[in-house]
Amino acid sequence: MHNRRAFTLIELLMVIAVITILAGLGIGGMGMATRRASEADTRSRMERLKNALQEHHRDWGYYPEQDPADEFNIENFPHKSGSIEGFHDRDGNPYLGDDEVDGQGRYLDGFRQPFRYQSPGTVNQQSYDLWSIGVNGQNDSTDREDNPQQVGDDITNWTR
Question: 5: which residues sit within 8 A by CB, 6+ positions away?
Fold first, then answer.
């Protein structure tokens, strides 16, 4: 009887193939989990921004105007009264904390991209349109007037 002490080349290749397949499945799952976490973070940040916009509307009687749609930048919003520039309440307190905006005054989503904002909105004509360009980094909401239901992977403040 032959006493076997080593693996054959076929057995080693099979083990390597199984490990490779399992590693590929694990990496793919991590990518999906990361995307879902970024989407959840984006939705949470969007809610904070919507609350800040509501507070601005309550304090000043209007939403900050921005047309055409562009990046949401708190430094782009001079008040109609001309007394205070920026995204602040009547006492000069910011609606968003310094830790919530980047060094350029942009409020970023979970994908580290600036939110897009337009007021008055194309879809929400009495208020504003607010959206994140999503994981693909493409602004899929440019045709929202003609077809607001088709916005690719963008995360929006209007109902699809």
Answer: none
Domains of the chain, first to last:
9-156 (3.30.700.10)
Within 13 A of 44's CA, how many CA atoms are on the CB side? 9
The answer to whether residues 155 and 131 touch, using CB atoms and an 8 Å cutoff, is: yes
Distance CA 36, CA 151 (A): 18
Read off the pLDDT of residues 29-87 as tens digits, 9 standing for 90 and up. 777 788 889 999 999 999 999 999 999 999 989 888 876 667 777 666 655 554 445 67
Q: Residue 48 — left, alpha, or beta (φ > 0 → left; ψ -120 to 50 → alpha)?
A: alpha
The DSSP output letter for 108 is B
Measured distance between the N- and C-terminal CA atoms of the chain, rounded to whole angstroms: 72
Cα-based distances in Å from 57 to 9, 13, 36, 151, 158: 72, 66, 31, 27, 18
